[in-house]
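Example complex used in Figure S2.
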Amino acid sequence: MSQPETEIVNVVVAKADTPLHTYNEILTLLGGMENFVSKNDKILIKINLNTPEGFPVNTSFALIKSMIKSCKKAGASEISLGSYSSKGVKIRNIDNLLKINELVMPLGAQLLFLEEDSESELLDIIQKCDKFFVVNQVNVDPLFECTLSMMNSSKIDILNSQESMGQDLENNFYKKELVSKLLDVYKKRKPDLIINDLYYVMEGAGPCVYKDSNLIKTQLMVGGTDPAAVDFVTLKLLDINPLENPLIIGARERDIGITDINNINIIGVDLESSKVSINYCEKNLENITIHNCKIKTGSTCSGCYHIAYHLLNIMKTYMTKDLKYIARQSVLIGENPPEPDFKKNVILFGNCAIKSTENFSFRTVNTSKESIPLSKKIRSMFNKEEKPNKKLKSIEKINKQILHIVGCPPKLNTSIKLISNYYGKQQVPNLYLYYNLIETYASTSNKKANNGGA
Amino acid sequence: MINPHFRDNWNKILKFNSKVEINENPELLEEFVRIPLTPIQIDAFLLYKLTELIYPKFIHDQQNIADFILSDFSIDNIVLESYVYETQIAGIHKKVIHLPKNAISIAKNDLENIQGLFTIIQDAIIKENGIKIMSIRIFKKRAIDLINTHCENLKKLSFNEFISNLLDLAQKCIEKELIILYPEPDILRFMRELISIFQDIKISSIYNLFNNLCPSYKHAIFFNYKTFSFTCQIEKDAHTNKVEFIRSEQSPIDIEESRLPKLREDNKLESVISLDLNTVISFLSEIFEQKVPIETNQMKLLLQKFLFGLRSFDTHWKMYPRPKIYNVLIKYLLRLFGFNVNLRKLSHWNLPEFIFNLFNSNIGLNSKILILLTNDRNTIIQNAILFQFLNGSLVKISAVNKTDVIDKNLDVKEIHSDLVEKLEYVDFIFKVDVDLIKEIIEKYIFKIHNVSPFKLYKVLKMAKKTKYLEVYPSSPAYELFKSKSPLSLLKLVLPIIIDKHEF
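Predicted assembly (957 residues):
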């Protein structure tokens, strides 16, 4: 649907002393929840529930609770919460750990396990609900600068999406594909209320908690009825040019929402004076400094960049001690990366790196061996004066100290497992424990589910 | 104005301090005084040496001090009493000059600009007395009243009551700014910021809680410094606690390992720990330099230093009897079974980083954690304390009033849903039985000389039982902890805790 050029949408920017006061301010400026919810409405609230980790990886539960309460107060009859996770964890498993249903059920809401529904069922859920709200936690993101509300609504496990083994995804194909998948849902149904919560924003490394992650307090929230406009203003607040953001570009190309500042009426605090400056994710993977690890990148597609970014940050966070003992490790990413400095422990990340380095010198190792004929050796044993002429024979062998992580992009969890297996648990106890943690919450929750858990 | 009990003791200290310089062998003077504000008797020379060492490091390292007692009610001139101490050695008070009334007048508004006030006072004292003071201590009359009441009660109170009273006094004086020091020492700023974290919790109640969790013990800590050494003997039995300071007559060089067994035997102690006083003071000064809430990176650094100290057994600290865990044969046998428990190889450089990363990713950067302390193996809830973290730093500790749900219920799920309403949101509830804490404190602090991997195994086994420890909602780390047997948990964690290479 194309927007009429003259349509002007309201976007509210609120600032207050606590997150809940800011949320209330947003609602007040938007005319109250009654403006969005009618009596007996069925409401779907889309939240961030990425991994069983704490805030700000997931949407603030205090905020979710307040939203459920205000919907109930406005007369909603049925409230459902929905999300898709990342790192290969199912929402059901996250719920088994964090007990979200036990928290929201007494308030009259329930958490849906959306990933268990097929695409069509999912669209059904979204289309059949009377009102569709999005509450999105804003953090830095390696691919889209920050996690925007428009990233929140599609069925993609962004870090463990099905890899394309047949054809490599070149350049920005992955990003474009992702944008297309993310925006698809808006063609069917646009949310009725969007809140971008940037009261606290994770900067440095994100959107999961890593060593370089830092939380800054902006005291801001952005709300409105148009997802593109809300994200546009959010980017403006974070001092990013929205017209360079792939999601905004995608929305503009697909004619989803308002992406022209002239058609956005900003209510609340002044945009210019409220701008915040934060540290974004490292764009150049080679600049991620990991102890005893050299990172070499060639021409990297957005998919490999995205997953490698997370993998390198996990290495930086959990492998400091492991890498102290390993001493030499190289990670090659992308097409035609430079030769590694050492031939030991070379991790080839992604199909591009594996294929393009097939003829590189680090693929083989030369060993030299003394070659003396046996007869001469025996003779020299009896006759000490006769010394055999030593000849050094050079043998070229395949370098076995290379780890191939296939896929374009490879899955994050598989990559961690492969690295852990390559070195062995004795060599990388920290990474092994991290891998155990990931495995445990998947398996424990499955076990509980099998035993009749939620 | 000042309590006579306190004044007499203070005068005795001043008198002794003035004798030290003129005496050829001051260490031979056998005089005893009380540590100010406490009933603890101490060798006067030991107190002199300790003040000489500690005061410049923690309070102020320049000479000459002026004390002022200010009225709480006057406006124009609020000075009630003023004194000047000429201190040739920073902190060693010898002679006091009582300034005449109206020698220095301070208006209530002057306190708003303490730096300007200091300069005025400094100039006035140079002019009148020819002494250049380098620091001032301001006591509001209310502080003096509190000190007087505290001193009056000293004789009547038991040791634990005295400590509680002293902590309450310090908390009130710092919180309400009844005592002002200029230039402000780091320790005072640190304490003020720390107290603000505790919100409505009295520091004395934390002391009492910790004291109740401690088993009966009788230990001695032997402090060693370049020029002197002393023993601090601490004892707790069923009825009371005791602290005693004994100055060592031998020179510090003579003391070492040979002295520890004798000291233990003579005083029938459980163990004797020998610590280098300089190391302890350096570590404490580093802590006091921190801004509270302490940032995560600073916290990691402090923890690294503490762990480095812990792993430096035989260099930075000694213990008699030697902890079993350092026994070579035990270490060797355990290694044969695949457990490397060489505490000298404690991974001090990696462990803090690992702990904080694990905490931040499991709990979140901002979180509220409620600790419920239960009694009698999970039958009664004794305390409910809420810890609030912001960007990974602890910013608030508050006591949660027992609601009907907490009082009558032990189900964490119901407590969680009740408190989520009252406290906006609670991320995690840790229900811990005091028996488990007592076990940990006893085994790992007070009976560390006896600690062995088998005891560690026993504590781990205990912690896995929900009657001792329960976390709601769960977290990946807690699920992993519960899903593994104590032995496989040790196998998983020990390579992270202990460094790999022996050399």
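The longest strand of chain B covers residues 380-390. Chain B touches chain A through 38 residues (CB under 8 Å).
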